[in-house]
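Structure ticket #2291
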Amino acid sequence: MLKQEQRSNNIIRYSSNGFLINSKEEQESKIDHWNQFWFGSVKSILKADLIREGKKQGFKETTYQPFYSLLEKQFSMRSLDDFSEVKSFLTDEYILNNIELKTAVSLVKIEESQKDHLKELVESIPNTILIDRKEISETFLGGLKDNFSTLIYYSFIAIVLILLLFFKNIELTLLTVTPIAITWLITLGLMGIFGIEFTIFNVIITTFIFGLGVDYSIFMTNALVKDYTYGSKDISTYKTSIILSVITTILGVGVLIFAKHPALRSISVLSLIGILTTVIVAFTIQPLLFQIFVVNRAKKGFSPIKIRQLMFSTGLLIFYGVGGILLSLIGLIILPIIPISKKIKFKALHIATAKMVSVVLYTNPFVKKRIVNNGHEDLKKPAIIIANHSSSLDTLTLGMLTHNMIYLVNDWVYKSPIFGILARVLGFYPVSNGVDDSLDHLKEKVRQGYSLMVFPEAKRSFTNKMGRFHKGAFFLQEQLKMDILPIYLHGNAEVMPKNDFIIHDGSLTVKVGERISFDDKKYGVTSRERSKKISNYFKNEFLEFRNEIETEDYFKDILFSNYLYKDKEIQSLIKDDFKKNKGIYLAMNLQLPMQSKILHIGNDFGQIDILLVARSMEREITSVMFDERNYVIAKNCLTTQRRNVNYIKRIQDVDIQLFDVLVISEFSTIDLLSINDICNFETILLVNTKLSRSKLFNNSKKPNSHCISEIRDFMKIKP
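Resolution: structure written out below.
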């Protein structure tokens, strides 16, 4: 068949030993044909003729004896093993013979256009199949690609899990694997641009590139964490090490680019693309991500971003923004055409807005919400509500109480592209230029049953520290003859600080105070007098409220955020120290005045200073740290950015007379202070130290000073 196809120019050439090795049927047929040919007297006649004619030529009778013996031989069928003994038949190359399967192979070379014809021809022959080596190679490579992609996914997951166990932090893990994923995508894109296809060799080299990417990303993460912890610039050293690795690798593999074999050259090209992409991504994108989500926020005094908080905050802010836009459109377009009372429509819009802000708050399970209403105030009677203002969450938090409120807002709220329209539709009123011209509008809203919501500070504060109360709310009370209802908002400054968009874990507590009647002369008569006295009353009540809520664990998250994404050892030490001494730190915070200038002699990582200023920004702290490592760690804490905390290494650089409180948590260097220095302080606080009052003065210079009695408060806080 193959010979016939070759003659018909359907195949170029073929190679087979089928014409040498016959099947059993063919052997039986040929043996029968042989025996039939030499049947009867044919053999004896031929033998007699050969002897007779041979004698004429001078041959002996035995000259053709081998031929005579062959004629008498009884032929039998030969097995495949018999044919295999003839090496020139190449039996083992073309025929597979085992118990389970026997196959015979013929190699055929054809033009691509004749493939279909040969397939049809082979399909018509029983027990015969056509194997296309090119098609098999392509199928094998395709399967290899699919398996390789699966293996890459499995490897990536394994790397993520290993990094998660190593860093014990999902954010640092993502920071490390993100450049790896980006490198992989860029490499695939460049392979497509340059027309580099996957081969068995490329598949192997890509695993090599993948491994280098993992190494470089881990090095960069460790460098970024170290620099963030100690404020050093060691990242340049790590980059130098990586560059040396890149150079040696390129010299080793890149030389193959001069190879003539295309497979070797493709290995070199892919290696160069992958390695250079890896190092560029590691040097640019990874530090950029760390800078955006960690360093830049710390410089502003904000906690570094956690991925969970980022996702929740982004989702809730989008929901809040979209909800505000939809409610604005409803108020502008839909409500005006609904044929019902304007008062009912206005109230419905207020209810919908209150529901929306409540959904925003209650959707986040990591922020606890609580309302304290000991006086069972139902808010049905209109009042002028005053509240402290420290966060963008304040208006949302107040929405948990009631929807019957008209906010007096700044002009920027009216000009907001998202909430400005809604603010106008809801009847909120701008009072940046005072409330004198707004009385008629506000009287109408009060007549409709709405309370007026005023933030007396007129702007947000960064922490729970309240600013000066303006007299606008008290002027309104005087003019409108309404009660003032104090509302105390706690936790908002920690959950969502001013100018931050991240909603942190924490708790929001709303306390409804007691009404202050407009004719209660205890708080003065004029709006100026009432502004001052009610301000003092409000701040004192709020301080008591804070003392109830701010337990020993309250500032834990703020403390830990200062060491987030820093050296794991330091994080562990901070957590252990806080767990052991949190009761001491709470007592210390309660003992010291909210407004004071503090000199702290210690040797910690700055945690005492952080806890002190977390409770009160009015505390100014200068902390003396003699240990260089502790000094740089404390100095690089984010709390120092927006609070009055200063770190120095030498106590000799301090003007003792500037301070009124001395806090000692490390006594090994206390002998550098004289008795006169110590007696300069109004309050001395010994925190978690073996030092006692007597030891303090005995260890100090000039121990017999008359000024010891001038110290107003001497306290020791210990476990």
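Closing remark: The radius of gyration is 46 Å.
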